[in-house]
Each structure stands twice: as C-alpha cells, then as structure tokens.
Amino acid sequence: MPIDSNIASYSDLAxxxxxxxxxxxxxxxxxxxxxxxTVPTTTRQLVTxxxxxxxVDELPADVPGKVTPRGVERPxxxxxGNMAFAVLFVGFGVHAASIVLRGFATHRxxxxxxxxFISMATAAAVGLGLVLLRDQRYRAMWSFLLVPVLILxxxxxxxxxxxxxxxxxxxxxxxxxVHVTVVSIGSGVFLVSGVASxxxxxxxxxxxxxxxxxxxxxxxxxxxxxxLLDRLAYRTTIIGFPIFGAGVILGAIWAEAAWGRFWxxxxxxxxxxxxxxxxxxxxxxxxxxxxxxxxxxWINIAGFVAMLFxxxxxxxxxxxxxxxxxLN
Length: 328
Description:
- By secondary structure, the chain is mainly α.
- It is built from 9 helices and 2 strands, in the order αββαααααααα.
- About 35% of the residues are buried.
C-alpha cells in the first residue's frame, strides 16, 4: 500500500512537538530545582501535657520531597513541579501519538529503522517513569532522566530521521512487531535503570547528611537517598531483564525462520548477548554480599553502555546481517 504522506507529516509534527514538550518539562523542573530550598531539617521543642518535651522534625514547605497537607497553600516550587508532571503526561501522549500515526502512515508496525526504534524505546522509558517516578520522592530524578531521552530523540529526529517508507524485504515478517517491540521496551526500561545507578553512585559520593557545601552537594540534596536510588535501579532491571531476554530469544527464533539457524554470532546478536549477560551479572551481584552497592551499580552501568554501543556502533559502523536496521 502507498505511504500516506499526510498522516506521515502529522506523525513528524507530533514527534517534534513531543521533543519541545519534554524540553519544556525539563526547563520547568530545573527551575523548580533552582527554587527549592536545601536547608537541613530543623527541630523544635514540643511541651507535652505531662511537662516533658519531645523533639520533632519540621521541614520547610519547599524542601525536596515535602508534601504540603490539604488545605494549606502549596509553595510555588511544589506547584511548579506538579505542573511539570502534568505537562509530562501531555508530552508522553503526543509522543505515543507520533508512533501510532507513523504506523498508520506506513501501514506497518513503526519499528523498521533506528529512528523508529529510538522513538519507541524512549517512549517506553518515559512511560515506565510515569509509573515508577510519580512519587514525590523520585520527582527530582526527572531532571536527569529527561536528558538522555532528549538527546536520543534529538539524534533520532536529526541525524537518524528517515521519511516514512515501507520496510526492506528482510523485515517484512510478522516477527518484526513481536521481536523489535519487546527489545525496544526492554531497552527503555534499562534506560531508567542506568540513570538510577548513575545517580546512586553520585549519591554515594555525596551521602545524605554529609553533602559538601559546593554545587555538587547542593545538587545531591535534591535527590533521593542512595538506598531509594539503588532499589529503583534493581526494580527496573528486574523488569527489563526478562523483557529484553525474551526479545533476544524471539530474535533467535526469527533468525532460524529467516536464515536457517538460531544463532550465528552476528555482531548485533553478540553485543545483545553481552548486554544481557552483564545485566544478569548485575542482578547476581546485587544479591551477593561484598558486591552490592557500588560494584553492582558499575556492572549495571556497563550493561547500559553495551546497549548504547549496540544501538549506535553496531548499527551504524559495523556491518552484519542486521545492517538494514541502521539508517535505512
């Protein structure tokens, strides 16, 4: 069927609009960061009926993670953060619409090249973030998660963008939506996990209550503590590991149908397997005494680096049976 150029143009417009909205959300969150106080917890003395006194913590209304009770006017930084989160939902909806419209325009699943793959993977990352990072304790992470999302979308929309077109003959298979959709979702989940581990290492360097007085300490005070970040990285990897593993297995089944063998150590197959093994090693290290915390986090980051290497270097630089997954 011919490409519907009108729908394709709407898809491209929605894609660009999503980038603008995500950038606006990032600016709003950075603004909130700048306005949010990072003073330490203060205390006050309460005198009880029996004459004793209790010491309780009192947080200013505009410190990170502070939720204003109902009936009390919320400070501007908190309202700004809530507005940013609401706009983020709009951006995700526009982003998802661009993917759906691309599919309608091409009469296929929009997963036939790097541009479409990155769009799907980043949408999965944002969608997962909207579920897992909705808690006020994690809201500050969005300022960091949106950075790689925006970079990837910018590269996809400029250097890697291709006009809507039919897929190459090698991809005309019912395995395309099954295999590539699962892999792209797993990749998006690993994006969230990688950012969480990076922030965890940063928080270890600037531990809660012992942050330095420079800008690095000021930045760290706005983040969740190290344990929360470590748990988030672990939880997201547990989600992404079986999804990505299923994608690799489905790819092997497709390879047997297309090339007559399940596995041939093609560069993309090999790099995907290495990434999967690294994430398996992270999950094992995370549960092993002596390897938890920083050592495990570095393994998780190594897995994410392998994913990026697989996406850009293997697809663009290295030739192999998956070369059609590059810029065409």
